[in-house]
Design goal:
Layout: H1 3-30, E1 36-40, H2 47-63, E2 67-71, H3 78-85, E3 93-97, H4 100-107, H5 115-118, E4 119-129, E5 131-134, H6 143-152, E6 158-161, H7 167-179, E7 184-187, H8 191-200, E8 205-208, H9 210-218, E9 223-227, E10 252-260, H10 265-280, H11 282-290, E11 294-295, H12 300-321
Parallel strand pairs: 1-2, 1-3, 6-7
Antiparallel strand pairs: 3-10, 4-10, 4-11, 5-8, 5-9
Helix pairs in contact: 2-10, 4-12, 7-12
Amino acid sequence: MKLPHRRQFLHLAAGAAALPAVSRLARAQAYPARPVRIIVPFAPAGTTDVAARLIGQWLSERFGQQFVVENRPGAGGNIGIEAVVRAPPDGYTLLMTDPSPTISASLYDKLSFNFVHDIAPISVVLRSPFVIVVNPAVPAKTIAEFIAYAKANPGKVNMGSAGTGSTQHVAGELFKMMAAVDMVHVPYRGGGPALTDLLAGQVQVLFLPPAISIEHIRTGRLRALAVTTAIRFEALPDIPSVGEFVATYEASTWFGVGVPRSTPRDLIYKLNQEINAGLADPKIKARLVELGGTVLAGSPTQFGKLITEDTEKWMKVIRAANIKPE
């Protein structure tokens, strides 16, 4: 090949090699060119919904384009998640969810999607413990005393939950397994009715989110025994963790953002970067902490690891406790 021709060839080859990178860069810089949906697979006003609106507002301001929350409740979150799975993988449909799909993966025999494979993680936003609370009529003052009380009264302690297969339920079943206690599960259609019956003494124990339980604890209407995260919870520093009495026990809820599988990696990392910037903003951080958790920024890989670990953990609990959907 003559020298001028060879130089021209090398120049063209270098240009062609750069095209994918240039294309990715241009796509990321142009995004978003129209409003973006954030699908919440639950009803409005819950923690998942509020977290989605806070993150959506932040992203709207950062990108100069609307990020609009769309609630798609039903079937334990499966309807909304399926809508995201089937959406074009172009970054214009996001999902804000809690651990429900990691439970549904084993709870339901037939799902039209595989959450681990069909949703690409972007970023976890918030992590929150449950607080194990009892009606004051229960004589136990500590989690150790409660375990002893439950063992002395097998099948006589009623454990309420927001419903079969809810995060509260599986957290309680994990506790039953690891503490070797026999409690009767009483499912309700939501956390509100379960809390009402706990206050009335119809059930003896609940695993409640901090945002719901703190005021009742402060007024003495409920007694807090422990938090379910591996370490103590900053908002309730005087309440021990279950892990201080039952080694390795951990059960928490989290809220995070995902997109359909095959969404371009450059868009995933761009969204991750902007969400993490929001989590570092004092105002956003304070609002999220008010929801009863700890802000938990991280990479898509870290969030994916959390999803996989929870899916495996709840599969073992569901199978061991023989939990079936209602």
